Amino acid sequence: MKRLSSERSEILISNLTTLGLTKSEARAYLAVVKLGPSRTTEIAREASLQRTEIYRLMSRLVSMGLVEETLDKPLRYRASNPEINIPSLADRTVKQVGRAAAAAGRIVAKLTLTRSTARPPAETEVRVITGRRNLESQFLDALKSVEKEVWMMAAPEHLVQAKRSTITAFLSTISSKHVKARLITELDDRTIGLLRRQLRFVEIRHCEDVPSHLYGFDDRAVGVGLTTAMARNAGRMSEVLVTHPECVEVFRRFFEAFWDQAVPYEVWNATRNQSPHTLARRTVIWGRERLYRAVADWHLKAKERILDYMPTENGPVRVTRHLGTSFVEARNRGVRLQSLCHISRANLDAVQELCKVSEVRHTDASPLIGISVLDESEAIIQYIQTDTTEEKCPTDIAIYVTDREAVRRLGETFNLFWNYSTPAETRIQELSHNQGKQAIT
Q: In the beta sheet, which residues pair with residue 69?
């Protein structure tokens, strides 16, 4: 009896499973081949299987013509001629695969006819989609229901990795439906070669450092990438798809703010061979911790004033906890600090602390988008994913802007909000008065 190494045995077992055998059937068959005529106890020992299982496996292998029973007592089994039966098994497997493929086509056709195409108008969902193939399939499927506009943000790597058939289907759909399409990406020689075909159908703008993707259909659905474009494993790429109206609106507002700061294709193309300083930088900052690092030196650079619009309840808590010291340093240098925030009983202690170094006013809570402006030179537009007191929140997204005109407009927006807001002292008195009323009641 020829002995096979454990590694060679595993390779043979793997090869046999590709011909349609289960792993247990392959082990049992290989044991019979190695042993020659043998009893069930010997086969079970050689294959490392239970003896009771061997009877079932031998019956199966006999029916496939791979093993023969002897008429000995006790019963023995031996392998049929493999030179004849293995090719025969391969032929049967190929035919079965062909029949399965044909059946799959018929099943898919029937399921497609059976599947409901109605879209419940009031139903909302939050769904995580995994795998590049599934992501592209979901995108094209959702595209069928678009009525007015598709708005998208994608890193260059996403464009390079997208299948040609997906791009063709996308262009065909928006062309036939006459819908508006907008795309923000980082333009360079590589991406512009891919996008030239799309310029007739898609309005494109340039922005640097876009690491992941985002897309929306009208005001009904938004998809947000959970993995960076540099992820090498296509099967692990994922996104979250949201149809909750309030969430879609927040992402839409963020996209519009981003769009206003991005460089139109025509401008980028006209200046692409000039100095990189001819285009003001618009940089995306991903994550709250990175954002705080980016603005950590603002209070040292500031010459005249720093404006902070933080309309969420925990905004003052985060600022006093993580940037309080730098606020004091700026105030000591004569920098004017103006903080516009939502003041409530929950953040009253933080607001009172903030009032020691900054002018503070109250505004109603609004969608989770904040603004910070440094003099007239730099600005941040921040989307706050989760309004927590923590410094770490990787899902926060911000646009860092150094375009003077854009910074000026953001400063004017802040001034407009400021002029129609309530002084902190008035708001704090209102809260104290209301609390006293409740205590008397």
A: 77
